[in-house]
Amino acid sequence: MATLTYVYAESTAVIGPLAVSHEPHTYDLCEGHAERLTAPKGWDLVRAEGDWAAPPPTSDDLAALADAVREAARPATAESVAKDGSPQVGRRGHLRALPNPR
User: Fold this and answer.
1) Are strands 26-29 and 2-7 parallel, antiparallel or unpaired?
2) Domain coordinates of the chain in residue numbers?
3) Region 49-65 average pLDDT
4) Among 29, 56, 71, 74, which lies 20 to 30 A Cα-Cα from 14?
5) Residue 15: half-sphere exposure toward Cβ, Cα within 13 Å
6) CA angle 3, 16, 29 (to 5 degrees)
7) In this structure, what DSSP letter does residue 43 have?
């Protein structure tokens, strides 16, 4: 795993170790894409040397996963059921709970 960062002001793309926090203009890449990626025409490409091991999960990752599971497991409320009685698609942040097809 690696992180690609575009530095638009310097027309440079940098591929380095996986970032631990999200920054603007960064994209996480698998190893294969990180090795084969090329920069746009006229840009410089900088590749950091070394092994890029994935960072271990943090408590924030586990907390976000637990919150998503709790949210999906909540019983239906009056707002989440359509007038015809069918469940509606719920959305919270970047997660979406889809109704169970019957």
Assistant:
1) antiparallel
2) 2-47, 59-97
3) 70
4) 56
5) 21
6) 30
7) -
- Give the least confident one: 21-30, 37-46, 57-66, 76-85: 76-85
For residue 66, what is the enclosing H or E element? Answer: helix 59-73
CA distance 93 to 83: 24
Note whether 63 and 45 are within 8 A (CB): no
Best CA proximity match to 13, nearest among 35, 36, 38, 30:
38
Q: How far is Cα 28 from Cα 82, in angstroms, rounded to an integer?
A: 39
Express each pLDDT in 28-51 by its tens digit.
Answer: 888 889 889 998 899 999 988 766
- Strand-pairing partners, residue 29, are 2
Centroid of chain to Cα 3: 12
Are 95 and 70 within 8 A, CB to CB?
no
pLDDT given at position 46: 92
